[in-house]
Amino acid sequence: MAQDLTAFHGTQCLNCGAELTGNFCANCGQRATDVNLSLKMLLLEFIESLFSLEVGFWQTFKRMVFFPGMLTAEYISGRRKRYSSPVRLYLGTSLLFFFLVSFLGGDAGKVNLTDDEGNTTTLTGQAAADALREGIDNALSERSADAESDSTLADVLADVPAGDAIARVIQDPDASKRRFMTYLPRAMFLMVPILALLFRLVYVRHQRPYLHYLVYSLHLHALFYFTASVAGIVGRIPPENVGNSLALLLMLTFPINTVRGQRRAFGDSWWKAILKAGIVWHVYGIFLSLAITGVGVAMIFLG
């Protein structure tokens, strides 16, 4: 807001001490205001920040979702004030995504039991783990009947390296899921610079600094989290086949948007963008598989 909303006293900024020449400090950006707090001041600051956030939010998400690559092009060109920062955008969308995964993901594990009459019962969580363990125990008992010795899953795991850790996962799958979801966001954050490096390598002739690709990687991950979050919500629309189909269609927009993003951010032709995207995402998939495997190992052994 251009007009002075609060009266201020003195000629120095109360935040950094610089000389004041207007309603805002030219050095640190703080509003020139009175040292004494008032309810009016708090309300005005809240309203101002709310509208500022709204403008930045809609500008950022409109370009991220409908004009992929434009955010990156704008940011590396120096037009940054009107948009949320890449790191803030990444953190906000990843927080939304992992919250929805935890909230909509349900219980860890699912087992379908079918009786002799063909009736199916679905068990989840601890009940599924107990049923699975019981089934394995029964199978091991039948196998060892000829040897006249009883074997259970616990007996087998006792003789296996890291058997105790594996047994903990089987005995409490919900706790294992929580541990997995604790480590996964950290692993995904490490994938951001890896993706940036891969783009840097396929665009080695462009002579762009690595940080340009890091910004693009942050925007791409944010777009994925946002798309997957919306798809997860849409996938709950009944009937189930309709919701799943709509969610699938939404997720299919992501690879298309990555190519569109490369064209806008780096000026590629369609064929060059598709070829480079194919190489990057293939190698990225290998690193992502390794990262998820590492998360699984950490879940088991660092529980």
What is the averaged pLDDT score? 79
Spatial gap, N to C terminus: 51 Å
Number of helices: 10
Overall outline: globular
Radius of gyration: 27 Å
Number of structurally distinct domains: 3
Helix content: 55-70%
Describe the sheet with the most strands.
2 strands, antiparallel
Strand content: under 5%
Helix/strand/pairing class, anyone? mainly alpha
Order of strands across the main sheet? 1-2
| Contiguous runs where pLDDT drops below 50 for at least 5 residues | 1-8
Strand elements, count: 2
SSE succession: HHHEEHHHHHHH
Description:
Mean pLDDT is 79; it is low at 1-8. The protein has 3 domains: 1-32, no CATH class; 62-106 and 173-301, no CATH class; 111-159, no CATH class. Strands 1-2 form a two-stranded antiparallel sheet. It has 303 residues and is mainly alpha-helical. The chain has helices at 39-66, 70-76, 86-104, 125-143, 153-158, 163-171, 173-202, 210-234, 240-266, 270-301, and strands at 110-114, 120-124.
